[in-house]
Amino acid sequence: MSRWQRTMALIIVMSILGMLLVACGGNQRTTQDGAASPAASPAAEASPAATTGAASATLPECPDSARDQQITMWSPLTGPDGDEMTALANRFSQENPYGIKVQHLPQPDYIQKLNTAAAGGSLPDMTVIRAGDIAEAAARNVLKPMSEAALAAAGGAGLEDEFPDQVWRVGEYKGQRYAIPLDVHPLVLYYNKEMFQKAGLPEPGAEPMSREQFEQAAETLNKDGVMGIAIGTAFQAATLFQTLIRQAGGQIVSDDGTQATYNSEQGVQALQYLRDLKQKYSPQISGAGDPEVTAFQQGRAAMVIHGPWHISNLQRLPFTGFAPVPQMLGDKYAVWGGSHQLALTTDDPARQAAAGCWIGWLSANSVEWAKAGQLPIRESARAGDRLQQVAPPVAAFAAESDYVIMLPPVPGLEPALWGEGFGRAVDAVLLGQQSDIKQALDAAAQKSNQLIQQNLQRYGGQ
Fold first, then answer.
1. Is 61:153 a contact under the CB 8 Å cutoff?
2. Are 310 and 294 in contact (CB under 8 A)?
């Protein structure tokens, strides 16, 4: 049995167990209509168990010091996802029996604002932080290590077993825990169901399409002015390159984050395949602003691979289907993805404890966060069929969670690799500005390694 098949089997087992638990009553309560609502009634009982609508879960035991604390949380969630987070913060504030209040404040350019606030001594109590920013924020003392009380309130011993190792480890820096994972947001295959049906092609399912299936679909649907698949540049191309190199068995960087490795044989193979796809199906698409997604929306492309933040718009189109990214190279499944994590920016013991209680509640109920197009990463939160009920498009690619590529927690690593490194090389090759792929990747890796060494001298290692 393949790893993918084992993962799918585990999801099925968890679903059955979840349904049995609900049938038996368990420790959960639901509203009369089974729907979760931001306007849920406050908890009337003086017990640590706070209800949360349809997806109610036990609130971790909160210490007395957490009572009546006011928590301010910043985040980079400035779109509809910010509205979902605000609604969840409001629900927790209403329902928890400890009198803890959480105020969510989305912040454009949130890293810059956190650094400025740190310099001015005006940091909030906590933040939602992107995984790639954790190590540098910890090294700059913007993030504070989580106390034992905060960790206990967030879930306590065994919490790490709820998360894939690659997602959990990015929240640790120099032996201390700085963040708890909330979600992953991997690439998604969006496909035109009507085009697949008209062509007599089987629609992609819960298991990734093989290379042969993917290429057959792209070739068959590439006609009548429609692109079989839309391949652009910028963000999409860079994330596809990272996906392909890992599928081919290579790495983007060494395990300890000290050496760029994307100029390997597998890196050349990945970029060659990406260039071939683009030249064959969508040579005219390029630039920022996701024009490849626009082509799909307009019915000019049968497939596109992009982030889940497009779900809210694309699910409004009746022809949109959702599926895991295909296995396009090699036999090692992998997919690029990011992760939002929950971190503390205060070292006040009482506020840390209160923030830990909020983190524990949000993590246990994170299936509700799927409404924002994010994939909840805590295993028990996704048990049963609740994810399918709350966000069917997200459930369609949920098994990608075990295969998301995460970089080692090294300060400044992502911009050193991506922004100044392979990102520019990938675009140059795809746009025909550089014909020698190996040469382009070698030059980019040299630049990446210079920046990595500068960061290591400035911040130290993991």
1. yes
2. no
Residue 399 identity:
A
Cα–Cα distance between 402 and 333 in angstroms, integer? 10
CA distances from 246 to 225, 264, 269, 339 (A): 32, 11, 11, 18
CB 303 within 8 A of CB 282: no
Tokens of 110: 């949130």
Q: Which tokens hold the place of 310?
A: 């497009």
pLDDT at 156: 85
Pick from 232, 239, 234: nearest CA to 132: 239
User: Both tokens of residue 393?
Assistant: 């498009």
Instruction: In whole angstroms, give the CA distance from residue 231 to residue 277.
Output: 7
Task: Report pLDDT for 33.
Answer: 29
In contact, 399 and 134? CB cutoff 8 Å:
no
Single-letter code of the amino acid located at 171: G
Residues in the chain with pLDDT values less than 50: 1-56
Residue the block writes with tokens 């020698």: 436
What is the dihedral angle through the alpha carbons of 279, 405, 340, 26, rounded to the nearest 10 degrees? Answer: 120
Query: Do residues 134 and 171 touch, judged by C-beta distance below 8 A?
Result: yes
Write out the two tokens for 124: 């909030």
Structure-token match 């922004």, residue found: 419
**Which residues make beta-bridge pairs with 191?**
303, 321
User: Interior CA angle at 9 toward 5 and 15, to 5°?
Assistant: 145
Are 277 and 258 in contact, with CB atoms under 8 Å apart?
no
Tokens 């998301």, residue? 404
Tokens of 217: 């679909």
DSSP H or E segment with residue 7: helix 3-24
Report the C-alpha gap between 398 and 401 in whole angstroms: 6
pTM of the model: 0.87
Give the pLDDT score at 460.
Answer: 77
H/E stretch holding 93: helix 80-95
User: Which residues, at least 6 apart from 330, have a Cβ–Cβ distance to it below 8 Å?
Assistant: 247, 248, 249, 266
Task: State how far the Cα of 339 lies from the Cα of 167, in Å rounded to an integer.
Answer: 7
- pLDDT score at 58: 59
The rounded distance, in Å, linking the Cα atoms of 377 and 41 is 27
Q: HEC string of 137-153?
A: HHHCCCCECCCHHHHHH
Q: Kindly tell me the burial class for residue 119, based on how many C-beta atoms sit within 10 Å of its own C-beta (0-12, 13-18, 19 or more).
A: exposed
Tokens representing 303?
């497939």
pLDDT at 390: 94
The DSSP output letter for 207 is: S
Predicted confidence at residue 382, as pLDDT, reads 87
